[in-house]
Amino acid sequence: MSFSTPVKSRPSIASCSPSRMSYQQPRLDSSPLTPRRYTQLTSSFMSSRRRSPSGAQAKSCIHRQASSPLKLDSYLPEGALAGTGPVSSTPKRPTKKQLYRSSVQGDRFIPSRSSTSTAMSKLESESKISPVSSDSSASSTSSAPSYQPNTVALAYQSSVAEACGLALNTRILAFKPEAPQSSKPIDLRSQYNRPLKPAANAQLRRRLPTSAERILDAPGIRDDYYLNLLDWSCNNQVAIGLDRDLYVWNAETGTVSSLLQTRPNTYIAGIKWSGDGAYVAVGLSDGDVQIWDAEEGEKVRSMTGHAARVGVLSWDHHILSSGCRDGSIWNHDVRVAEHKVSEFVNHQAEVCGLQWRSDGSQLASGGNDNLVNIWDARSSTPKFTKSNHKAAVKALAWCPWQLNLLATGGGTYDKHIHFWNGTTGARLNSIDTGSQVTSLQWSTTYKEIVSSHGYPDNNLAIWSYPTLVKNCEIQGHDTRVLSSALSPDGSTLATVASDENLKFWKVFEQIGKKVSSAVGGTLGSGKDIAKVMMIR
Hints:
By secondary structure, the protein is α+β, with helices and mostly antiparallel strands.
């Protein structure tokens, strides 16, 4: 005869509170166990609780599993609870993996394995989780190395400080300047209430003009955009062409003298002082180019050959370049009888802008065909030809403190100032001025450029370079400004307009040293140098 034993259903011991856990007597009416079997099961479980005299080990195991309680049946043989198989007298102990999972409270950050002891950290966590209350557990921990939390903390701090590049004995934030250390009483208000920057000296403050310093009459000046009728010599003399007459005004003495008067039916179209300030070149409407001695008041020589008026001139030592209305540029050697040494031809209209670089290596020309040509002194073919302007280009200026920087200004339909690199031909910057550009002058004191304008503003503007910020705008004339010239010291700008006024403006006040280049482009300056050219 055989029979089957049903499996009893019991409540889970893990659902009970660990702190109030107690053995619950099973119901006899629902279990087929005999009294002998029941007694053996009870004694087996109670014996496992009495392994430690004070019950510390059992409590310690339950305390370790408080966060994640295990079922009590894991400590008992499976066959004893199922009612089959022999009953073991010793319970099944939990594995190391289960103890580790039950003891983990959270993640730990270990920045450096070399400075942190894993054994120390494990002992610290175990000492916090399972308090020792018996002599046996105390004797077992005495054999482990002593835990020193201060040593680990200092090692951690030193490793972080070394990684961040900090010193442990200094403060991260500190006041500057440091607090004064003195035995005498110090007024802290006077010590710390100091201005961030020293106040600028009144003598060093720059004063921008709002009105002209001097005004002279210029009756009979021709209102022609393509003519160049004003220039200032290194000897501080201003030359101005008024129709048929050329006048020289001495800025030091204030005297005015008439240097020449042209033939009837001709007029002065362009004038330019030589580098030494001794001679002035004059271009006439009939195509002649004359050279006059300003001190003696007599004509030195006359060079003919142009087929139309010569409206622009430029000196390079003993070479005088003249721009003609037919688009040609002639280079004259004033030392020899056969004065024409070369000719530059690339413009299709009148040449109205012409200037040599200060070192004499390049010549810039602008024309009524809206072109800008940069010529090499050794070649009759232009090195660069620029067609970015949309109107005639009269205003040309080489920078005195950056030799390869060229500024060009366009007419009424262009209204732009372009900046070029004379070495590479690249356009560096541009300014939309909003009005016709008639002349450009670089400052020798500041990194600035001043521009004169015609329609519609008829004003002067000072620009910073390379920021291109407009520093000042001066409403100077009632009509368009025709020409401008800078004084030899670089401080005063002379402008002449079709309103027949010649005005002087203190635009670049002398404060410090001049901004100068490494190469000088003139033969001399001032009265210290006499006439150095032998003109035939």
